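During the no-cost extension, the postdoctoral fellow (Dr. R.K.) reprocessed legacy sequence entries with the updated structure-token encoder. One reprocessed record is reproduced below for audit purposes.
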Amino acid sequence: MSRYWSDSVKQLQPYTPGEQPKINNLTKLNTNENPYGPSPDALSAMQHLLNDDLRLYPPPNADHLKDCIAQYYELNAEQIFVGNGSDEVLAHLFNGLLKQDAPLLFPDISYSFYPVFCQLYDIEFEKIPLAEDFSIATEDYQRLNGGIIFPNPNAPTGKILGLDAIERLLQANSDSVVVVDEAYIDFGGASAVPLIAQYDNLLVVHTLSKSRSLAGMRIGYAMGNAELVEGLERVKNSFNSYPLGHLQIAAAVASFKDEEYFQHTRDVVIQAREHLAEQLQALGFEVLPSMANFVFARHSQHNGENIASQLREQGIIVRHFKQDRIDQFLRITVGTEQQNQLLLQTLAEILG
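Re-encoded structure tokens follow.
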């Protein structure tokens, strides 16, 4: 700890991202990356821009990308906010919209960056326990609050909240911003985007890291009422006017336009997820119903941390959380058919 650190930095407990080890022949199933590459059109669009024009600043408002997203979701460009990955979008959102007099509410088992943002921006918050079956109980959010945020599907559980329940949340909290963090929504769930037209307190956050295979490019966006977006723009332009570079914008636009590739790879992942869940259950695992590109599973007779450790010894890494209620679960990213089969074979050996 440096004597030059401010008091606020000394007190921070930073977010711990998924491990990115440098191990040869690694089967990496711990960070929910898409097992299939980006759209070939996105790669071509980026390669086309590898020239001297990179000396120029990118357009600060990324208008071309906003227009593309707006057209895709049948919104207006004024309802779109873009940033350097959905984490940056969330950071601006926490700082600009969720710092209120009443506490922010989010699930106790959820994206672990939420309490980090609260600590960074000095936001009071309350964690609302998930139900016994690890679902979000919307009735528990009918209390005084300065905002509500939750992933849908939830992470790390993979469980989804239906649109009817989300609408009840919006109606019961009309004086608060409700943020639906839809990083994994493309893998089988119904997006809350259509509700934007009816509820001016709704913000929906997306990323191109998962279903569009662009985690390495860091592209995220939010959709909602134009006044909410204007608030985010004020924060962004007080922090970094150029969050997205030329290559990021080009890759994102090309990805949205290549609908056939997107649907094909998404469907392959969904089918593989269902098969993986069935095979894990055959090995004695309890697998929560997932609408994401991962499964969340525990074995009744084997310790979760031990299983993760033994998998790692065999060159396979999955995510284990040392957290109450889920410390026996493993979050396993859906990989290629070959990766999934290797995982299952290795698990069968470990479990005897």
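The chain has two domains: 7-37+260-351, 40-258. The radius of gyration is 20 Å. The remaining legacy entries will be reprocessed before the final report is submitted.
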